Fold these 2 entries.
Entry 1:
Amino acid sequence: MKNENIEHRVRSFQSRISIAACVFIGILIGGAFFFFRRIMDPIRQLKSAADRIAKGDLGARVFLKNGDEIKALADSFNYMSDEINRHIAGLTKQGEELRSIISSMQSGLLVLDRNGKIVLCNESMEKTVQASDITGQFYWAVIKDTAVFELIQRIQITKTSESTEVNLYGRAYQCNAAYVMKNNEIIIVFHDITGIRNLGKMKRDFVSNVSHELRTPLTAIKGRAETLKGVKGIISITCR
């Protein structure tokens, strides 16, 4: 009888221990799940916001209510996003200003990469070569002029700056080329000096015409003077 009571108590105690262990394990699992959710949900939000920024949505932000380290991480992420947005906006503004300046240039602008391919040009350059959509083409397919070829080849070898005069499609240009070490690119500016050359020719023609006109009356005067000198000599002989 005593043995049965002891066994009964032992089984009852073991049962209680098992129940307590199950409850404790359940509490642990529930706490772990809650802690996991508490950690993973903000991380998922951060990952989602990072993916949106990577796809170009610079307005993505993460706002958390809890005040732990993850919220501090989210705040740092938001600050980083604001800085990226500000820098990109500044670069975009600078790019627009640069494009506006380039497009408004009266001189033709041409930028070549290390392979001789056109990576940038303006509208004035397209008018100079009488072609459109030349970006992406090789310069020798667009500018068919030996002087320009030789200038670019010299710049590629010497990696310095140089200028020369060239004639394209009946117009004169001051061609200034410079090598950019940082990007291994060549920048060429074509400044139209046709008007200056025509003005110089007009000045030379004017001087030539004026000189001719001045020489003509001087020759006549000299001839008359010699005639008068001869007449004077005849009169002197007659008087004697």
Note: The chain has two domains: 2-95, 105-192.
Entry 2:
Amino acid sequence: MTDLGLPDSNGIDTFLDIHARNSRIPIIIFTASKNEKIGMDAVKRGAQDYLVKGQIDGRLLKRSIQYSIERKKIEEVIANIEIARKKEIHHRIKNNLQVIFSLLDLQADKFKNKIGVTSSEIIHAFRESQDRVISMALIHEELYKGGKLEDLNFSPYLEKLTQNLFQTYKLVNTTISLKMDLEDNLFFDMETAIPLGMIVNERISNSLKHAFLGRDKRRNSNQILP
């Protein structure tokens, strides 16, 4: 319980500061009758209830405390359900993309040893499509496993993406090395992460395919900055 009018702060900022410190604690706002709109605003922004000073008795205070505790519990249950729902969505999308990856692999096998078909070019085209699918699947996998469901920590994602590309092009034990200059805690939402992941996928894939022909020492450097 807190009063919106305190010696060191005043108004809605008092509540917002407390709420930011620990959003899991149910908060009841005390406000003067002339500031009742501020109390209602606080409830809209996360407080569980508000009481008008001068209109409070023991019964009303007890009821407000019980109501605030129960409301906070319900809010947490709803929040957990929403988190589980979003995690399940990411998990299903990742699985669906892996199915597409497997279908592309099966389709590519049909072109092997076919007369009149340049199999290496066909297989190469299917492999590029698989790489693009995996670049998207990895995003949903990272969001599913991570603590944030809306924003992707891009640096660990890039490390997995590049590792997958090296395995795809069978370059794990070669002299090719990749140096990545990545910032820590570089978060992007999905609308940014997916196209950016595709761009990085294309750049590194092209580097692995074309940049090192005829060279003894093979090194590539990519830098991602916000």
Note: The mean pLDDT is 77.
